[in-house]
Automatic annotation (TrEMBL), chains A, B:
Pfam families in the record: PPK2 (PF03976)
Key words of the record: Transferase
Protein name from the UniProt record: Polyphosphate:AMP phosphotransferase
Tree of life domain: Bacteria
Organism per entry: Thiospirillum jenense
Domain Polyphosphate kinase-2-related span(s) in chain numbering: 11-233, 271-491
Entry's Gene Ontology BP terms: polyphosphate metabolic process
GO molecular-function terms, A-Z: polyphosphate:AMP phosphotransferase activity
């Protein structure tokens, strides 16, 4: 695969100077167009050691307008990163629309190193590469341009470079000697590299293999390649996947699901006042203990509350927060996104709030807005909300894989009950702020919302993150069911009977072991 | 001081119910007005242990609209927090305009605990309290409302509460047993508390002492007090300090400074090409080593570049970034703030980017925009830019105190040289993006900018963060002077001859020791 990168191409000083200035002008112009078209660009800089990746990055910083260009390297993981799913650190670095981010190694670095060091086998590597493919596809479908450079050297050239560097005052090799062994295992590294590139060389995000022997050729080629990629992306419309990702799943379609799910709920179920009081006191006491245990075990908890308007989300959440020490939880009501949030993928704002180890985070509405309100109101187009099912499943799998305990509640009420509550809100002064004209409008779309909910539950009720459907007409019943479900789930997970912890040893995973590990 | 909190006030169940609903309505209404008037509110919840601070916070979360209300506790410092100045974690929690943040203990927690545990004496505590006063004044002058609650119990009541809690399944005392000793040293704690309250009980940010024995009285009083504070803040104009803080300093006023500073620069100084090449190679090699040493010693570096338009900031910065491993630095060009940034104090966006330990961050333009462009163009009013001098000095002191190595460069060129460079930019294709109509407009305000620069340098050239004025007419000379200054400063600091490291042991400081500590 790398033969083409070992033919010894080079560029003379004169040629370089000649081409450089025009290239700079064109790059700056392309960057301006990126800003106008609001296309985010991710540039991955990877390759063999001593290929001069750092020099290339400095060159890009020199040629491009540094406003709207940021560079990120991924080493010494902070504990805030370690306490969250591995991809959190990458989400932190994703560029806003119209800007560029240059990533050293990016999401490729850890898997390559781990496989190279024999910490995982090819199968584990492939599984991780599959995640990478999904991740990049998601970014691209959201409008991003992903440009991946692999810098290569022949074994002879690499050895020569390393010798030079070890003499060079400015080299970092004295600082990071352990890296030197890359050269001693050139063959293995090339094997890993080839496998990684083969599995992740998507039509929508191809790898560009660059011969790095001659630095002038290397830098000019990078500049030209990036320029072409940007121009192509600006001219051609968004590359579309053949079929919406969600269709890959073999799930009941919404029409049939419509009959099978919400309608099965027995909304007539109630709970007597005394039963309620007793159960509430008992469950809140238990929940308080469980939350502290989770804190001690460093397990984070993610609770998602969705439901019909006036479905009783707030009341249920307050019965939880009243029991949990206020230092352990944070409730996040999902309102309109800020412009920084609008300038990123819709999941970005939720990655932002992922709790640290041992913390509980409660979402009052969530990322499911994508397949509910955004679908029904047409804020997201067909392709967008359809592929969201897979994006969400992948997101939640990463949470669970990291050891987070994830619960999702849907609170359902009947149309009549909703009407009663709307009227009650309209009449109670301190409830009026909760009821808006929008609520009344949404109510008219009851059937569309019902279909959306059914499909959502069908497509996103995974074994690692099942939905709990809650009969909400009787508030006491609903609140107790929520608390009961939460306590049961926490008890099982914290007793170490958690089947998903095994998932957490993946190629590329540098994160802490969950569950007090 | 606490006598008034020990008279045994209480509220009956009926009274409570009666008053609660109206209070909720009024609070929600006040919250709505906060949003409209874009006033940020910081609520500090502090006091003796077992006073029920967590219950109060839960109550506020129940009574207020949880959209625009966030709660933060400050324990288990993350290493990302430990690697930055202590106040970074507080800046992270400051509410956006129109929103509320409820802080457990906030910036009071650590100093109180440290003094209480005898880790520092009263003098050290007072020094820290002085910082708190400045910090709160800064927030308030920026438009914030700061409401501070101190919950108190008599010694008898506290002991009774603790006994109850130790029986209660839901208490956190089993989890945090070490806290129990608070009760054993009630007198000492009251001494510390009284001192803290006395020193920080500002007219603009008073403490509200709340008797916490009866939970209904406690919660109602908190609700009513908060309501009154919000209403008062909305009605009355921004509380103004008698004199602009900056005037407290005894510094030359701008008119006299105007003659003494920039005009002393000998802009005719130049460097021959050969000298330049040799010096450049030598200094870049040294800088590369020094940056790695700083990384090993976990010292972060903050470089600030300001200067006349076309003063050569970009070129000087590139000579630095070309020498430093791209994984070690980040260059931040300061462009227009995002709306999230606009919704906070102007320093917030800079606190956001403070580097982790061992990293170098380079600001191309900086927080000094407040006293330069914002002053001259009138984006900041007189009081705003005047008090900015002190705010900036305090900010920089915290950086240095934490062990960061801070350098500030002003690149000066003559009016004629600037004109030449403007014309060159207009003619060179890949430089055109750098020259805008605004640059030409600013040029006409040369005298105003000059006055602003002079006063800036005079008022913010502190011993811990002096300005380096660079003669910029000859680019080679300027670049070498910058590199030379940087290398000298780093060498001194990294050889442990850094006089400011002693500052870092302060009451309340939980941060890591800088310089490889």
């Amino acid at each position: 695969m790398f033969e083409a990168t070992k033919v010894g191409r080079s560029v003379s000083k004169e040629e370089f100077k000649q081409q450089r200035d025009e290239l700079r002008t064109q790059l700056l112009d392309a960057q301006r167009q990126l800003r106008e078209t609001r296309i985010p660009v991710v540039v991955i800089v990877a390759g063999v050691e001593a290929a001069g990746k750092g020099e290339v990055v400095n060159r890009l910083n020199e040629w491009l307008d540094s406003r709207g260009l940021q560079t990120f390297a991924f080493w010494n993981l902070s504990d805030e990163e370690r306490e969250r799913p591995r991809y959190w650190r990458f989400w932190r670095t994703l560029p806003a629309r119209g800007e560029l981010a240059v990533l050293f190694g990016g999401w490729y670095q850890a898997p390559i190193e781990h496989r190279f060091k024999g910490l995982c086998d090819d199968a584990a590597l492939d599984a991780e590469l599959n995640r990478i493919v999904n991740f990049e596809r998601m970014l691209i479908q959201d409008g991003a341009l992903v440009v991946k450079f692999w810098f290569h050297l022949s074994e002879r050239d690499q050895r020569r470079r390393l010798k030079e560097l070890s003499r060079d005052d400015r080299s970092r090799w004295k600082m990071l000697p352990e890296k030197a062994h890359f050269s001693e295992h050139y063959q293995l590294f090339e094997h890993v590299a080839e496998r990684v590139i083969r599995h992740t060389d998507l039509g929508i995000a191809p790898w560009y293999l660059i011969e790095a022997t001659d630095s002038r050729y290397r830098d000019l080629t990078v500049g030209k390649t990036l320029l072409q990629a940007i121009r192509a992306r600006i001219q051609q419309p968004l590359p579309m996947e053949p079929a919406p990702a969600a269709d890959a799943l073999n799930l009941p379609d919404s029409s049939s699901a419509q009959i099978t799910l919400l309608d099965q709920l027995d909304l007539t179920r109630t709970l007597e006042h005394d039963e309620y009081q007793t159960a509430l006191k008992r469950l809140q006491a238990e929940l308080n203990e469980l939350a502290w245990t989770a804190y001690k075990q460093r397990r984070s908890m993610v609770l998602v509350f969705e439901g019909a308007d006036a479905g009783g989300k707030g009341g249920a959440i307050r019965r939880i927060t009243a029991a949990v020490d206020a230092r352990l939880y944070r409730a996040i009501p999902v309102a309109a996104p800020t412009d920084e949030e609008k300038a990123h993928h819709y999941l970005w704002r939720f990655w932002r709030h992922i709790p640290r180890a041992g913390q509980m985070i409660i979402y009052d509405r969530s990322w499911y807005g994508r397949v509910l309100v955004e679908r029904v109101e047409g804020f997201a187009n067909d392709a967008e909300w359809r592929r969201a099912y897979n994006e969400i499943n992948e997101f939640e799998e990463q949470l669970v894989e990291h050891g987070a305990i994830l619960l999702k509640f849907w609170l359902q009420v009947s149309e009549d009950e909703q009407l009663r509550r709307f009227e009650d809100r309209a009449q109670t002064p301190y409830k009026q702020y909760k009821i808006t004209a929008e609520d009344w409008r949404n109510r008219e779309k009851w059937p569309q919302y019902k279909a959306a909910v059914n499909e959502m539950v069908a497509r996103t009720s995974t074994e690692h993150a099942p939905w709990s459907l809650v009969e909400g007409n009787d508030k006491p019943f609903a609140r107790i069911k929520v608390l009961q479900t939460l306590c049961n789930r926490l008890r099982v997970a914290l007793n170490g009977e958690d089947q998903f912890r095994s998932l957490t040893n993946r190629c590329g995973d540098e994160g802490m072991k969950p569950a007090g590990g």
